Amino acid sequence: MLCLFKGKLVLHYAKILKMFTFRLHTHRSKNT
């Protein structure tokens, strides 16, 4: 049970991190 919860948490964080990096990248390209 705990392992499954950890996996879900990791997946959730990965999604957020991907969105954050994507937003940061687009923002940077817009500035230049």
List the main descriptive attributes of the protein structure presented here:
mainly alpha; 0% strand; 32 residues; 1 helix; rod-shaped
Q: If you had to describe this structure to a student in words, what would you say it looks like?
A:
This protein is mainly α. Helix content is 94%, strand content 0%. The protein has 1 helix and no strands. It has one helix at 2-31. The radius of gyration is 14 Å and the shape is rod-shaped. The model has no long low-confidence stretch (mean pLDDT 87).
Short description:
This protein is mostly helical and 32 residues long.
Question: What is the β-strand count?
Answer: 0
| Outline type | rod-shaped
Radius of gyration, CA atoms, in whole angstroms: 14 Å
User: How much of the polypeptide forms β-strand, as a percent range?
Assistant: under 5%
Indicate the topology.
Blueprint (H helix, E strand, L loop, with lengths): L1 H30 L1
